[in-house]
UniProtKB/TrEMBL annotation:
Gene Ontology terms describing biological process: proteolysis; signal transduction
PROSITE patterns: PROKAR_LIPOPROTEIN (PS51257)
Domain Tail specific protease: 236-483
One GO CC annotation: outer membrane-bounded periplasmic space
GO molecular function, one term: endopeptidase activity
Protein name: S41 family peptidase
Domain of life of the source: Bacteria
Pfam families: Peptidase_S41 (PF03572)
């Protein structure tokens, strides 16, 4: 027992010391020579591991960008300052999954505990981005009486438009589609801001509403006992919360299913993220309800779904397919040893390291046996999703509409592309943020830049839907294009869903008259 307590104290001390050491390193200046070495290291690792690095940019052009960056680095920078130099170059590769991890401050257990009992400063609002404008679209707590539709002009005297332009350069969609940026930027804006400025207890903001400017001060408030108790209750995983994948931080579900009319003719499924968690049970129960209700129409809403599990979209497709299907093409790697570069022991505690060491031989053989060489001499990785899958017994045979927009990314784009190619659904909304012809993701190799200590996760698999490629270098284009404006969002008017409902009513009316 004494040894156990001593070990816990030693691990706790090591953890605190690690946080302190990281934060000191994050604020230290790194020489230009060492930063240029980090640029070289980054490009070398990308060329070594990324299976389609020059998909959207030529090698000559990318060489030039990395060389230009090295020439521009002529003074010492902190890791955070260096991040804002290097990441815009990486974003020019136009792979949405490829991004440096911003070196944000780490917090001790004591600091984390203190923050848990406080409310967010900016995180209690919902936002919408239009070009270089950031709007409040929801204010549930009526903070400072900020009304939906109010524009946030500045924070502590700095123009929000300037922040938007700066942060816009840090992110990219897959390819040349532009619809992804406003959706993703509104979600990550304050992540970038906080990493750059730190966690603030207050902020002076300037707003604009109906041509009237106003200066307000936002303050970080403490949570009361009722709010703390509610959070504890929200975290308890009931059967319903598990099935619908409840997210306590947003008080919402990742999956929802219901019927939109009294006679259950129209089934509606909203999927915010393909997390895989309890997905088998959710789809099994939902499609059983659809079958029992004899529904004629199904609407699947994957707007602002940034993707997730290939397993889950394969499961979903098996409830829509009329015949056996193959979801994705064989997944390409740069080499046979790529799966062994996934940093198996990364972020392991001493205890985890011990267990992982014992399990490593199994991991090694599993990864090795799943790699094969194709007739073209290229290395591929075996996955269930690039093999034939049979339709489910309760597969839906009626008419299917799928709602997409610029926030539909990664796995959402893969399934949208496949469904469109197979002519199984009618896609409604906006061009997806993810590419029509696939992406590079799967599993990652987590590299750390040697001098700035910035993390660089590199996707190792080229994942592409099993379709004839369009080679447009853009997203999945909807069959019916309908844009939703900021005023529609403020008014909670879903013009895209309303269009589908109206089309269904027209079809039902025609059937009745016949």
């Amino acid at each position: 027992m004494k040894y156990f307590i001593f070990t816990l104290l030693a691990l706790s001390f090591a953890s605190c010391n690690s946080v302190k050491k990281y934060n000191e390193q994050r604020l230290s200046m790194v020489s230009p020579e060492k930063l240029r070495d980090d640029v070289d290291f980054t490009y070398q690792k990308l060329q070594e591991m990324h299976p389609n690095l020059n998909w959207y940019i030529s090698k000559k052009e990318l060489d030039f960008k990395f060389d230009s960056l090295k020439m521009a680095i002529n003074k010492p920078l902190t890791p955070t300052e260096f991040y804002f130099k290097l990441q815009p170059v990486i974003s020019q590769i136009r792979e949405g999954h490829l991004s440096l991890k911003i070196p944000a401050k780490r917090f001790s257990k004591k600091e984390i505990k203190a923050l848990k009992n406080k409310k967010g400063l900016f995180g209690r609002f919902e936002y919408h981005v239009v070009d270089d404008h950031l709007y409040f679209i929801e204010n549930k707590d009526s903070i400072q009486n900020i009304k939906p539709g109010t524009e946030l002009l500045s924070i502590n005297g700095v123009s929000v438009a300037d922040y938007l332009k700066k942060y816009r350069e840090l992110i990219s969609s897959d390819g040349y589609n532009s619809t992804f940026y406003p959706y993703y930027l509104k979600d990550v804006f304050f992540n970038f801001f906080t990493a750059e400025k730190g966690i603030l207890d207050s902020a002076k903001i300037e707003t604009l509403y109906e041509d009237k400017k106003q200066t307000l001060v936002l303050k970080r408030e403490s949570k009361n006992k009722t709010e703390i108790e509610k959070e504890k209750i929200d975290k308890k995983r009931t059967a319903e919360k598990k099935l619908n994948d409840y997210v306590a931080s947003t008080s919402s579900y990742n999956r929802n299913f219901n019927f939109l009319d009294k006679d259950s003719t129209i089934a509606y499924m909203k999927i915010k993220s393909f997390t895989r968690t309890f997905s088998d049970k959710f789809y099994k129960e939902s499609f059983a309800k659809i079958k029992n209700a004899e529904s004629s129409y199904l609407i699947i809403d994957i707007r602002e779904n940034y993707g997730g599990s290939l397993y889950e979209i394969n499961q979903l497709y098996s409830y829509l397919a009329p015949e056996p299907f193959v979801l994705i093409k064989p997944s390409q790697l740069t080499s046979r040893v790529s799966p062994l570069k996934t940093n198996y022991f990364r972020k392991s505690s001493p205890l985890q390291y011990t267990f992982k060491s014992l399990a490593y031989p199994g991991y090694f053989f599993y990864q090795t046996l799943n790699v094969y060489k194709g007739k073209d001499g290229v290395a591929y990785y075996k996955m269930k999703e690039n093999k034939s899958t049979k339709p489910k017994q309760d597969a839906f045979k009626g008419k299917v509409y799928v709602l997409i927009n610029g926030g539909s990314f990664s796995a959402s784009s893969i399934i949208s592309s496949k469904l469109k190619f197979d002519k199984r659904v009618t896609l409604v909304g906006e061009e997806t943020g993810g590419a029509n012809d696939g992406t590079v993701a799967g599993f990652y190799s987590y590299q750390m830049l040697p001098n700035s200590k910035i993390d660089l996760p590199i996707g190792l698999l080229l994942v592409q839907p099993n379709i004839d490629f369009t080679h447009t270098k853009k997203g999945v284009v909807p069959d019916v294009e309908i844009s939703q404006g900021v005023q529609d969002i403020i008014d909670k008017k879903d013009v895209q869903l309303d269009w589908i409902k109206a089309e269904i009513e027209k079809e039902k009316s025609l059937k009745t008259t016949k």
